[in-house]
Amino acid sequence: MFFLVKAEAQNICRLGTADEIPEIIIYKNIRMYSNRLTNLPAPTLPHGAANKLYVDGTPRKVLQGYIPPLMASGRGFGRLVLNDKFGFVVTASSCFNNLFHPINVFNGLYASGDRGEWATKNEARDFWIQIKCPDLVRLWSIALRGRESNTERVVERIYKWKLEGSTDGNTYTVLYEAPNPTFIGDEVRYFPIETTENFNIFRLFCLEAEPGRPGPGLSYMQLYVYID
């Protein structure tokens, strides 16, 4: 049993269906004249309407990178000048020398060689680079680029690695483990991160890489986060 409303031989709405749970079917647009729909539940289907509480409480992806350039424009009479006013702290298991400092990775550039890359001191196994952020954040993606020389014809590419998160620098949670091998070459690659937890320390732990001199490393790393 159903009740069908028509106007000028066109269906307007239908009250009731043959389904177990009867529905009201609307065939035309609804004009609310500034009135409101209320008491909507949180949507469970892709085409379900969302209420304001659900929209306000759902984290949104920030499409811009979270980490600003961390190196000052000046060189300080030949010395590396760090731009630490943002509250980010970068460390690594090693670096070849101060010209291949790990902070180069977070300068927003793809420069090659010294001042533009981080390279380990001949490490090819179990090395890492880490950034401590000023706030707890939740990731949805990470961008990585190897050294400028990391082409298929040159060694020193990282190929077995994982991304870890921590809140104390002692206990780490694996956020993403790349299939082995996943080469980090001379092009920027983006990797999706699926986690519900917030962290302020993120560590790229490299289990294996191609050996070389000065050593494997990166020229770029960026985090992409949610905003509440």
Task: Describe the overall structure.
It is a single chain. By secondary structure, the chain is an all-beta fold. It has two domains: 3-58, no CATH class; 84-227, Jelly Rolls, CATH 2.60.120. The chain is built from one helix and 13 strands. It has one helix at residues 52-57, and strands at residues 3-7, 10-15, 24-26, 60-61, 89-92, 118-119, 125-137, 139-146, 158-166, 173-177, 189-192, 199-209, 217-227. Strands 4, 6, 8, 11 and 13 form a five-stranded antiparallel β-sheet that branches. Strands 5-7-12-9-10 form a five-stranded antiparallel β-sheet, with no helix packed on it. A three-stranded antiparallel β-sheet has the order 1-2-3, with no helix packed on it. A hairpin with a 2-residue loop joins β1 (3-7) and β2 (10-15). It is elongated and about 80 Å long. The mean pLDDT is 87.
Largest sheet: 5 strands, antiparallel
Taking pLDDT < 50 over at least 5 consecutive residues as the criterion, the unreliable ranges are none
At CATH level 2, the architecture of the largest domain is: Sandwich
- What is the level 1 CATH name of the largest domain? Mainly Beta
Span between N and C termini?
A: 47 Å
Percentage beta strand: 35-45%
CATH superfamily of the largest domain: Galactose-binding domain-like
Helix count from the secondary structure assignment: 1
* Structural classification: mainly beta
Order of helices and strands: EEEHEEEEEEEEEE
Query: Mean pLDDT score, rounded?
Result: 87
Task: Tell me how many strands there are.
Answer: 13
CATH topology-level fold name of the largest domain: Jelly Rolls
The radius of gyration computed from the alpha-carbon positions, rounded to a whole number of angstroms, is 26 Å
Whole-number tally of structural domains:
2
Shape: elongated
